[in-house]
Amino acid sequence: MPTAIAGKKKTVRINGCVASAQAAKYADVDVIAAYPIRPYTATMMALAQMVANGELDAEYIVADSEHSQLSISHGASSCGARVFTGSSGVGVQFAYELYSPISGSRMPVQMMIADRTLDPPGDFGSEHTDALSTRDMGWLMGWACDAQEAFDNHLIAYRIGEDPRVLLPQMVCQDGFFVSHITSDVELPDPGQVKEFLPPYKHPYPLDPRRPVSHGPQIMPEQGPPLQLERARAMEECTPVIEQAHEEFAQIFGRRYDPWVEEYMTDGADVVFFLQGGHAVTARFAIQHLREKGIKVGMVRLRTIRPYPTDRVNEVLSKFKVVGVIETNMALGSVSSGGALYAEVCGALYESPHRPLVMSFMAGMGGEAIVLKEFYWMTQKMIDAQKRGKIEKRTHWVGFED
After folding, report:
1. Mean pLDDT of the chain
2. Which of 320, 325, 334, 378 has the fewest CB neighbours in a 10 Å radius?
3. Is the bond preceding residue 121 a cis peptide, omega within 30 degrees?
């Protein structure tokens, strides 16, 4: 049974990008593949400095594009290296060809994503469309809401993805600017704690001239169905691994996260926000103010979106009367004609005998902040739907309606 190690912990004030770099350092990564694009660039700058100063013994490779970054990462992981890479916005899109081959060959590459809006408008702020456009490529995926959680999520993701029962790559996401560039206190652990939690990476079939094996995405058509089924089962059956990793993380580091969802002030709530990422910080303040006025509102924050916690979302959201899904992403022409989260919430709730009303809010688009008055406005829309017993319409564009 893991035990907490008393050692040289320290608290530093850093932003999410530096927290991710620190996590890669503590994980003792072997290969870093870098190519600049804001806001994730700050992570690679911090790692470059660590390597140059001798703080981290890793091969730091500057690629000529995001596509090359993922190609390098794929090859390095295939040879048995623990790999760290990252990108943002259109950079995530440029590497798209590599996501399926990496997960299909079962290489646990880790990719840090600091979101930014795609073109147009290409804004530096957060919008989750870049990462969510890859959500069905077989990568583990989840969002942090602050720098501490970003640090912790990297270690947990390595532990899950490298488990021999899983062997899947991970996208460890954080909101551009709101997490990536806003500083907060982060507890950095004793290195001994990380060594206890995160064992060395050992792929069962590395590329090694002493034991020849063949790796490659191009296979005969009849080989495809079993390979796809194997990858699907790895994603579906990693639930106990995810839960075990979070439990052992709590025992060793003293910080406990629900692996699937965070509930905030949901006791007695009639209406709740459902969202992921850094805007949850503002949501908490808005909910505190509204609760002081006697309004029964709460928040459910999705921490892991792949694999999607269908049963848990069903169990949690079935308790409420109205769910307002806050979308910080674009899924144009989708079920809601807005974002991607709405359809999955409705799908998770379909078999529930106590389905709440569900509506979608397009907010924070273009990387804008979702401010307190907008949370108050969305709350009123949910209360109005509760009183009517039906929603006004599936999707509201916040800031563009009365």
Report:
1. 94
2. 334
3. yes
Q: Are strands 357-362 and 395-397 parallel, antiparallel or unpaired?
A: parallel
Question: Which residue is it, tokens 């303040």?
Answer: 285
**Whole-model pTM?**
0.95
Strands (E), 115-183: 140-144, 170-174
- Residue 187 pairs in a beta bridge with 11
Using pLDDT thresholds of 50, 70 and 90, give the confidence band for residue 6.
very low
Q: What tens digit of pLDDT does each residue of 288-327 get? A: 999 999 999 999 999 999 999 999 999 999 999 999 999 9
Cα(203)–Cα(213) distance, rounded to whole angstroms? Answer: 12
Give the tokens for residue 128: 């989750």
Amino acid at 158: Y
The rounded distance, in Å, linking the Cα atoms of 97 and 87 is 14
Dihedral sign of CA atoms 132, 138, 144, 147 in order: negative
Confidence of residue 3 (pLDDT cuts 50, 70, 90): very low
| 290, HSE (Cβ side, Cα atoms, 13 Å) | 28
Task: Give the separation between CA 69 and CA 66, rounded to whole angstroms.
Answer: 5
Domains of the chain and any CATH numbers: 10-253 (3.40.50.970), 261-397 (3.40.50.920)
Summarised one tens digit per residue, pLDDT across range 14-31 is 999 999 999 999 999 999
- Residues 6+ positions from 388 with CB-CB distance below 8 Å: none
Alpha helices (runs of H) in 105-238, residue ranges in sequence order: 129-132, 147-161, 191-197, 224-236
131, 52, 62: which is closest to 328 by C-alpha? 131
pLDDT tens digits, 338-361:
899 999 999 999 999 999 999 999
Residue type, 39: P
- The whole-angstrom separation of Cα 395 and Cα 378 is 11
Q: Spell out the alpha helix ranges (H) of 27-111.
A: 41-52, 66-78, 90-94, 99-104
Distance between CA atoms of residues 7 and 196, nearest Å: 13
H/E run at residue 185? strand 184-188
| Strands, E assignment, 200-296 | 261-264, 271-275
216 falls in which pLDDT band (50, 70, 90)? Answer: low
